[in-house]
Structure prediction request, 584 residues.
Amino acid sequence: MARQSAGTALRAWFGVEAVSRARARALNWRRVLILALACAAMSAGAADVPARAGIASAHPLATEAGYRILQQGGNAFDAAVTVAAVLAVVEPYSAGLGGGGFWLLHRAVDGKQVMVDARETAPAAVTLSMYVDDEGVPIPGATLLGGKAAGIPGVPAGMAHLVQRYGKLRMRQLLAPAIALARNGFNIDSRFARIAKVREQLLRGGTNTARTFLDNGNAPQQGYLLRQPELAATLERMAGQGRDGFYRGPVAQSLVNGVNAAGGVWQASDLAGYRIVERAPVRFSYRGATVVSAALPSSGGVTLAQTLNILEGYKIADARDPADAHLVIEALRRGFQDRLRYLGDSDFVKVPVAKLIDKAYAHSRAATINPNLATPIDALTITPLAAVTESYNTTHYSVIDADGNRVGATLSINSWFGGGLVAGDTGVLLNNEIDDFSLGAGLPNNYHLLGSKANFIAPRKRPLSSMSPTFVEDRKGALVIGAPGGSRIISMVLFGIIDYVNQDNVDLLSIVTAPRYHHQCWPDEVEIEPDSFSAAWRTALEEKGHHLRLVSRKWGNMQAVFKSSANGAAQAASDPRGFDMGGY
Ligand code: DON
Prediction:
């Protein structure tokens, strides 16, 4: 049996393989080490036994809290609740109680795989006229700022669902680390400081955001002790009453009042009636591996299936080789073309999922790819480009426990600090996920994404998402992977799958750090990360007719864990972009 060194095992146990030096400094090593030693001492075979559990998240405090729950006898589902709660406190600009998302679960005891859909819903009183004028022109900011922008949150219900259906421990125990961090405070890291600076104007002008997140009216500096007593009190209510602590009673009343004072149309019944949906994940094969990914209302699984089905016919040995990159781009264009044509909340519209993910359909799509030339955009579709901003955020984390239970969770409030609205005295920062709906044909959202009727807004409907928590299972073992990044999530996870399948020996760090490019059909351009692709690479693609756009900063904050089927050893890796490279 392959053995890891003690150091590797401890790092793996703490999910910090991928941390760069800068990020390592950001970790509180002393605490991590003490806890690591405690865990190692507990495990029977001493420190050279491979770690059997792995957690990767966007924040070391969340990862650490998740490991503690495993150490206390919790399973991956328990740890997932704790990680989500701690992230809501320490990474509030990404996701939290005011947002939504998807938890992809694998239960080891019976192999059950399910997607817990905690996506936000549009409030029952929503109307299109809240967002567009009589001519159908979007009202600036309506889907992005304040009360109109906020969907009914799903994360608290999702957490309660995980506790009730899948966990072993009680909500109070699982929320304790988050409550302590919210009440006592934590020192913000460089990433928090950077993002708060970028969103300083929003935080100054938003509702209750200045007093919640700013330091005397200014973006806080790294090291600032951020206390969130109101959020602690809301978490306390959930600890005592489960989902009712959020969706009914004083917190719910305060949410409704706060959102409506900021222009929203929420009713108490929107919150009380919010429901989690358990959905069958999208499942398909790619070169001998089984891929399990997010179902509608996430476009992730369907678009990944379409794209990988197209690519399966070509042996993609290296997705960054220019010849292979051309094929990957052409496959992405076709996958995203169908995303905008067909995808939306399947509880509201009929989506031909079976056809879209069918291999025969992929063959017919692949037949339209010219190996030497980019397909002209007119042959694919579509309409004009509008100015967009780039300030979005989300979080992904991955968990595997010693028994092989798995959780991949992508959670979001959409933009950095959502729509700049903390409702009343709840401490809950609300999402601006309404922007993920399409307001009409040819009207792009914040991610430049177009949509069709399938994703038009309607009461209680869920906006189409790109969040793609994904499992890849093959003879090597099981990978849990995902990332934030709006529409780019899909291409990031696509690369993760391709790279993983191409590896004989899994190197998670290489998977989360590898360079990225992205195409989403419309606008007709290949976005590429800076400092990642050579002039020769760019020329090769331009000669095939692709329009390249060099983006000013790298993107993504991928979090991956892997468990080997050979020896049960777990690895975890965090994308260094999250801390070092200006990624999300
Ligand atoms: O659901 C979606 O697709 C988006 N609201 C996700 C936003 C996101 O990933 C932003 N992250 N950087």
